[in-house]
Amino acid sequence: MTRETAPSDRTAIIVGAGIAGLATALSLARAKWSVIVLERAARLRGGAFVVGFSGMGYEAATRLGLVEELRARASPWRPMQQVDGDGRGLAWMSEASQRALTGHRTVSILRGDLEGALYGAAQHVADIRFGQTVTDVTDGADGAVVTLRDGSRVAADLVIGADGAHSTVRRLVFGPEDRWRYDFGVKVASFEVIDPPTSVREKTTLLTAVGRSAGLYPQRDGRLSAFFTFVRDDAGTADAAASLGRAYGDLGWVWPDLIQRAVSAESIFAAPSDRRRADADSRDDHPGRSRRLPPAESRAPHRVDGRRSPRRPRQARRAPSDRVGGCRSAALRRARRCVGH
Ligand SMILES: Cc1cc2nc3c(=O)[nH]c(=O)nc-3n(C[C@H](O)[C@H](O)[C@H](O)COP(=O)(O)OP(=O)(O)OC[C@H]3O[C@@H](n4cnc5c(N)ncnc54)[C@H](O)[C@@H]3O)c2cc1C
């Protein structure tokens, strides 16, 4: 691994190598932190649904120096058609009108391509470990101590749970997720369509009907990213394609064909649509240094108590040399922050 940053005396552990984890890793590494990313999956997960971002998201991509690469990988602009369940056109918008409406500081991109661009940059500045996860997080004397799946422990100045909607870090630090969860009662499903029907191949197609909405987004390689939402059918939570069939089975036009393809799709992403409330300030009921940060606060490096992390006096940073020998990563050996092997 080539490191673009100088060795640092501040170590951050980020759990999760999704969009949030990789973007944070890149940001912290450029701010001269030593960064370890722990990803449970064996490899990047990819994802065939389109993520559109502008505003703060675009600003963040600009600061990370990734905008040109993201633009190169972006989903193409296409004329947009709004249709009903039988494919009757209800409204249209040209590419030029879409561009004028959204402005130039907007990118729509497949989730997997966004993740790939972030990983391409982050892998050179962070120690990214696949197939690894965390089993415990505790407050240490001057930071946090994270226990990994293999039983080893790593000390860090900052621990970030970027491990998705059902965050293990949040559960370990703040307790069961039920308390934070707000369920919209809706499910989303997404998959890639190879060789799509002609009528949707060259246009972005949107459907909005009572209790369901769908979007079909042509990609550069002729494939289609298909995205469906529907009121959750609890009988079918285990089988996403079957749930989709029940929710969209009464429609005509290309919809039955597309739903059928969901059954044979190489992979289908399906998840309940819910959110985690960030309104409750965890400092009120969690007296330690750990804190749930609302999104805007995540932009700058903070300690777990929310303040900017001061540099510790050199002597206090040093760990006994017999512990240093057990450190796996070069970053930790340099920072001498590895304990418990
Ligand atoms: C169909 C669809 C369309 C969307 N469109 C948009 C959009 O247009 N604009 C937008 O801004 N957002 C959009 N979103 C939301 C956006 O995709 C998500 O908010 C974003 O992907 C979340 O990224 P994340 O990194 O926080 O979490 P995730 O993508 O869930 O990544 C979490 C990572 O942590 C790993 N992990 C989980 N548990 C552990 C563990 N215990 N230990 C180690 N690793 C772990 C996972 O394997 C994963 O790699 C859309 C979402 C969907 C489903």
From TrEMBL:
All residue ranges annotated as the FAD-binding domain in the record: 12-221
GO molecular function, one term: FAD binding
Composition bias type Basic and acidic residues, residue spans: 273-288, 299-308
InterPro entries: FAD-bd, FAD/NAD-bd_sf, FAD_aromatic-hydroxylase
Region (Disordered): 272-328
Gene3D superfamilies in the cross-refs: D-Amino Acid Oxidase, subunit A, domain 2, FAD/NAD(P)-binding domain
Pfam families on file: FAD_binding_3
Name of this chain's protein: 2-polyprenyl-6-methoxyphenol hydroxylase-like FAD-dependent oxidoreductase
